[in-house]
């Protein structure tokens, strides 16, 4: 009897263990969630839906002014095979702090152990599907996004949100284009010629070589300014000289700097009708004994000046070289931007022409036209190698905020808890995460706090926070929050009240 009881008890225990294990497994499946979770699902930033011809490629015009370019064969399936037919593209943009909050997209970025907060110049989420199944970017035919922006700051980087590692990945830079604008001007590269000139060392006249007397403008040969009563003597290796050339009448005489130090070429030319004749000799500047001694004194003085300024001269040369390289790179960049801008202008104009008939029907029905406005706008251009969330952002370093303990209240003064809380700063296109227990309020900047209470949007306005008169000495602060009703707990209403 006891043996049967023991077996029964063992069987019951085993059954309980199996039930617990089953429950745990089921629980794990339920808690598996996407990395980006909107805090209020009913108020998530909505997608716009489009259909793209995968084989031919297509262009999507988004209401903000963004232009999406899909080249032919831009999509592949999970096996890497090129997708044909119609592909469903879902696209949305996040242009302000309330978009970042309602979408659940993180705005933090960690680099070298420092936590930064992103300030965005344009962020989007793009997905693509074929027959309900996700498709992927063909790395050999990448789509191109031209996202509308009001921020031309070149400090903004391009980031991709890797949802597997839950990290933003730096993907370089976007290019700034201005649609509707004529070509940008190209800057002439700076000259790399240095203003500092090494003076030429004087040479004493040799007794066994011919002398050629020529008057020159030393301003054209600054290295020769140390010479007075300058003469030129044939170089010892010059074999072309003919004494009878000195008897001729030469109409043009030119002095040319040689490739070796202190060696020049003198060219004599004459023209008689259609006949032209010229001779040239390798020479070097020389002085007689008396003038040589004077020139050496002046040369020593010039060399000391030259040596004193050598660091400044090298710095100037490097600056000129750097400016030249920078201008050359900028000019190449401008050429690329002009080409892309011209391409976009042509695409937009073609799309406008295609919609003329549609607009005529729409206008006849007193509805808003859908023509894509060609007025001047700024776009940030970049290619994508994967579908998901892309962000033109600049990480901002942490500042010195006021740290305090918050007490959140509803409009009747009752204590409430916020499921999540974030802080917006007026005139900054960013969002700061607030952590429970203590929060950080920026100094000397207008801010508002938003969060979620019982599944509904909660907020305190910029003006209301300002009236709290928070200072460096504030340790604890009550925040009376407005809580949106369930009826108005949607994207459009929440965006309208935050924008006030």
Name some characteristics of this structure.
500 residues, alpha+beta, Chondroitinase Ac, Chain A, domain 3, 4 domains, eight-stranded antiparallel β-sheet, five-stranded antiparallel β-sheet, 7 helices, 28 strands, 25% helix, elongated
The CATH class name of the largest domain reads Mainly Beta
Note the beta-strand portion.
25-35%
Low-confidence stretches: 20-33, 182-194, 367-374
Helix share bin: 10-25%
Helix- and strand-based class?
alpha+beta
The average pLDDT score comes to 79
Cα distance spanning the termini: 79 Å
How many domain modules? 4
Q: What is the CATH topology assignment of the largest domain?
A: Chondroitinase Ac, Chain A, domain 3
> How many runs of DSSP E, i.e. beta strands?
28
* Discrete helix count: 7
The main pleated sheet reads as:
8 strands, antiparallel
Shape: elongated
| CATH architecture verdict of the largest domain | Sandwich
